[in-house]
Design goal:
The complex is a heterodimer of chains A (371) and B (601). Chain A has 371 residues and is an alpha/beta fold. Chain A is built from 14 helices and 17 strands. In chain A, 40% of the residues lie in helices and 24% in strands. Chain A is globular, with a radius of gyration of 21 Å. With 601 residues, chain B is an alpha+beta fold. In chain B, the strands form 7 sheets. An 8-stranded antiparallel sheet of chain B has the order 11-10-16-7-8-15-12-13. The chains are: A alpha/beta (371), B alpha+beta (601).
Chain lengths: 371, 601
């Protein structure tokens, strides 16, 4: 058994959704609700199968993502977390996050979820502009986000994150500023803001490919990003990753684990795990996942072993994402001097840290540094 | 023993593509029993080289038919405007030509041009209308057209159907009756004209020859007049239609010779073969000309490491292509490559395709250009690469090649043809009505304009009905300038082009607009400029890239994201660097493609 001194995270994938949004390429499905009981049982079983492999590792975070984890009943969520605590060495002060769709939660359910131990709530708000929500094929209205946050606060949630997406069809600097102001009015501890990315294997991707929908304008998205940086900075949020801002001390510990290349175990259909330069992942279709687990096997669908150059590339691009930067001593000065001179990188006491403009061109920075 | 010279007839068939030349040859092979009935199949001669597995693997350029006590040598002529000189040498091996015209389609420009060549070479013309069995045939009208052209009685025009065989017997009889036998002096020193040559992997260079004087023995020490190369010939023979060795080829006879040479450049089309030593002739046959490339293009391997492969491939192709010339050159943008000269656009396509298919090369080729003569202080410099033109008018004058073009068009499209030719700087020479509906027009046009998409434009403006042929017509003074393309202030030599001053602005604007779409955004604004000398005539800007980052990168995204970066890195490595600007291969290929820009207009 390999043991790791570094604290690790647990990711649990819940692939169920009320509807499928046009832009989303996650491993998520609408209309599979009938599988929920089997799926919950499989998660418990998989944890048991995986647990021995992680003996000696202490875990400091759990993240339930999806899909929409809050489509599971609160009592099932309670069972799940309690089971994880029996299988894995999960500290009492672990950060436990659950993603929620505003239309799937009520004060009642949130009270139960909080009581079950899910102390961090990440709500998929996406936008406060009804036109943008329609373009994203989100079924909720801005009012449901406000209601969900109010409910969370009402039952005692002290760590709420809102997810936003910018740059969909119809988005303007004005609509985005409005969304950010509405978000700030709800005073979340944490905000994730993502530029809309067109994935080819989605309904929106097909629409863009055949010309039925315009592709996002990268220049506008750049303006929206810089606008967010400014507004959120003024509101006292720390920009700690390309798409993530937090009140000091509320950075997402679990997600930082990915970027700091700490180990994580993944449970559920398509979930990824990583430890010591090896990454592996579960089979993606929920039915296939269920069959494998029910047969008593670890449902591994694939794996990769990072060679030193892979690991180096990941180290560079992930460290640059979290504004921790990378030591300048890793590179020939010729590789980064032009980036520093043009204001894309800052040389911060020997560490190269991207500026806001640099974050927007992170791929170029990584390629230029590691070429 | 060689055939009595008075019973030899050497002839060719002048026809437009699809007018039935191959089918007529089939009927002749049948009627003369040259090919056994059971072995006969359509397009017999055209298919021979494909189906043969060993022995001589080249086309039957000249096939011997025996008919009514006569030896008839049917000599093939190349069917494309790139090969006018080769056509003229084939004609020089003949005393007569069948002018074969489709009774439905009528005369086409290429037939007409070759007919003029044949008549100027003193050949006896035997006119025939083919496909009279077709419902669309208009034999009376076409006979008028031909009679007018030949200044003969319409009743003299034979009417045949190569498909059914009707009239072919009579056509052969007419060839025997009207085409004169060759003249030659059997006792004079050997003089044999090479009218085609080919390279066989096993037997080396094989030439097709017409013996004028003397006798060509099967085994002899031979000498080529133009190149001075000597060699031991291994076999003489005739195609009947299979290669059949003979003891000797006598005066007036046509056949093949396995020369013992290994490089076609030593046995060039138009050269004269004589015997080595004291029996050598003192004078060659007239009309030899060095192959003259008309069109030039830079060829570069897409992968710079393939330069030696390209060099070896060209060296190999040269063995079997005597018209291919090339010299090494280097480009800042494209690296090491070759400036290659071609007989014309078809020849260029053939060579490119062979390089890619037979040698597995991926190539970038610059836009084709013609040869320029640059005069400065009474010194003439020949320029094959636009980048070598003096910039900004630093010369006294420039000459460019022109061609004499023959265009046959239905009268209703005459306006469109005039318009196109005027737009392409053409000078009208004359025109005449072949019939009330069809017009023959002659223009002198700069070759550079023909090279630039002229044929496609002609076809599209006349709904495919006009036909074109042209021949070199010397050089003329032109107001030409070099237009350079600059990326971020750096000239890109591969994009330099020589164009007429009046078209420079349009050309420059079109190129920068096109490049603006093709050049990916960089980390800084990139100016794309067209200039003449130091004067910028067009400009576009590729705005700096502002966003290139993946929004989400969580546990399940990292592998995919790393692979994306690796792909992006490989793409960057394949790019060419011009100054500080990274330009992908595809941008070069697309920007240098002539037709696309032309079609957009």
């Amino acid at each position: 058994m390999s043991t790791s001194a570094e604290p690790a995270g647990i990711y649990v994938h819940v692939p169920f959704c009320l509807t499928r949004c046009g832009y989303c390429d996650f491993n998520a499905y609408a209309g599979l609700d009938g599988l929920k009981p089997r799926y919950l049982a499989a998660l418990l079983r998989e944890a048991e199968l995986a647990g021995p492999g992680w003996a000696g590792t202490s875990f400091t975070s759990v993240f339930l993502g999806g899909g929409t984890p809050t489509t599971l009943a609160p009592e099932d969520l309670r069972t799940l977390l309690a089971h994880l605590r029996t299988v894995f060495d999960l500290g009492d002060d672990a950060e436990v996050t659950i993603e929620a769709n505003p239309d799937t939660v009520t004060e009642l359910s949130l009270a139960a979820i909080l009581d079950a131990g899910y102390g961090r709530l990440s709500i998929g708000a996406q936008s406060f502009d009804p036109a943008v929500l329609t373009a994203l094929e989100r079924i909720h209205q801005p009012a449901s986000v406000r209601a969900a946050v109010a409910a969370a606060r009402g039952v005692g949630y002290g760590n709420v994150s809102l997810d936003l997406i910018y740059g969909a069809q119809g988005e303007t600097l004005g609509s985005w500023t409005h969304t950010l102001e509405q978000t700030l009015a709800l005073a979340p501890e944490h905000i994730s803001a993502y530029a809309l990315t067109i994935e080819s294997a989605t309904p929106l991707g097909r629409k863009v490919a055949v010309g039925e929908a315009p592709p996002p304008d990268p220049d506008l998205q750049a303006d929206l990003f810089l606008g967010a940086c400014e507004l959120l900075r003024e509101a006292g949020y720390v920009h700690y990753e390309v798409s993530n801002w937090a009140r000091p001390g509320f950075e997402c510990r679990h997600n930082l684990g990915y970027w700091e290349r700490r180990p994580y175990v993944g449970l559920g259909a398509g979930a990824h795990a990583y430890r010591d330069d090896v990454r592996w992942w579960n089979v993606r279709p929920p039915e296939a996942y269920l069959e494998r687990v029910e047969a008593g096997e670890l449902p591994i669908g694939g794996s990769e072993s990072l060679d030193p150059s892979d690991a180096y590339l990941e180290e560079v691009f992930l460290r640059l994402r979290i504004l921790e930067g990378v030591p300048a001593s890793w590179f020939e000065p010729a590789r980064y001097e032009a980036f520093v001179a043009s204001g894309l990188l800052q040389d911060d006491l020997g560490r190269l840290v991207p500026t806001e403009r640099g974050l927007l061109l992170l791929n170029e920075l990584v390629l230029g540094l590691t070429a | 023993m060689a055939t009595d010279i008075s019973r030899i007839r050497n002839f060719c068939i002048v026809a437009h593509i699809d007018h039935g030349k191959s089918t007529l040859a089939d009927r002749m092979l049948e009627i003369t029993h040259t090919v056994d009935e059971r072995m006969m199949r359509a397009q017999y001669l055209d298919r021979m080289d494909l189906e043969r597995e060993r022995g001589i693997t080249i086309k039957a350029q000249a096939v011997r038919l025996v008919h009514e006590g006569h030896e008839l040598n049917l000599i093939d002529t190349p069917g494309h405007v790139d090969f006018t000189y080769e056509v003229s040498r084939s004609l020089a091996a003949c005393e007569g030509a069948i002018l074969l015209v489709d009774a439905a389609q009528g005369l086409e420009a290429q037939t007409l041009a070759n007919f003029h060549l044949a008549r100027d070479a003193g050949l006896t013309i035997v006119p025939a209308l083919n496909k009279i069995d077709l419902p669309a045939a208009e034999p009376d009208r076409r006979a008028e057209e031909l009679a007018h052209l030949l200044d003969r009685d319409p009743h003299d025009i034979l009417r045949i159907s190569a498909k059914t065989g009707a009239g072919v017997e009579e056509l052969l009889a007419a060839v025997i009756a009207h085409v004169p036998p060759p003249v030659g002096d059997a006792s004079a020193p050997l003089r044999a004209l090479i009218f085609d040559s080919a390279f066989d992997t096993y037997r080396g260079v094989i030439t097709y020859v017409r013996v004028h004087d003397g006798t060509l023995p099967s085994h002899a020490r031979i000498r080529m007049f133009a190149t001075g190369v000597e060699s031991d010939a291994e076999e003489a023979g005739v195609m009947a239609p299979e290669a059949t060795p003979v003891d000797a080829l006598g005066p007036g006879e046509v056949g093949y010779l396995v020369t013992g040479l290994k490089d076609v450049h030593h046995a060039k089309v138009g050269d004269t073969i004589t015997l080595a030593g004291k029996h050598a002739a003192t004078e060659p046959l007239p009309g030899y000309r060095e192959p003259k490339p008309m069109v030039w293009s830079g060829l570069y391997p897409a992968d710079g490491n393939d330069y030696p492969v390209l060099r070896d491939a060209l060296d190999k192709l040269k063995l079997s292509d005597s018209a291919l010339v090339y010299e090494p050159e280097s480009s800042q943008a494209l690296g090491f490559g070759f400036r290659v000269g071609f007989l014309g656009l078809l020849h260029m396509d053939i060579v490119r395709e062979r390089l890619e298919r037979e040698f597995g090369l991926e190539l970038i080729s610059t836009a084709p250009n013609v040869e320029f003569h640059v005069f400065r202080a009474d010194r003439m410099t020949v320029v094959h690469n636009p980048a070598e033109m003096p910039a900004g008018g630093d010369h006294d004058r420039v000459e460019e090649p022109v061609v004499y073009a023959t265009i046959i068009t239905p009268a209703e499209y005459l306006g469109a043809v005039f318009e196109l030719c005027q737009a392409r700087r053409g000078e009208l020479v004359d025109m005449s009505y072949l019939t009330p509906e069809r017009v023959e027009v002659h223009y002198v046009l700069p070759l550079a304009e023909i090279v630039f998409d002229f044929f496609d434009q002609l076809k599209s403006k006349t709904r495919g009905f006009a036909s074109l042929d042209y021949e070199p017509w010397g050089f003329q003074d032109s107001r030409l300038v070099r237009v350079d393309i600059l990326l971020h202030g750096e000239p890109v030599d591969a994009f330099s082009s020589v164009v007429h001053r009046d078209k420079a602005y349009t050309y420059g604007k079109q190129m920068v607009e096109r490049l603006k779409e093709l050049i990916p955004r960089q980390l800084f604004d990139v100016a794309v400029q067209a200039s003449i000398g130091s004067k910028v005539i067009a400009r576009e800007t590729v705005k700096a890239k502002r966003k290139d980052v993946l929004a989400k990168c969580y546990g399940g995204d990292i592998t995919r994201k790393r692979k994306l970066l690796e792909t992006q890195k490989k793409g960057k490595e394949r790019m060419r660097r011009v100054g500080r600007v990274d330009v992908p291969q595809e941008a070069f290929i697309a920007a240098l493609r002539v037709d696309e820009g032309a079609k957009k207009r």
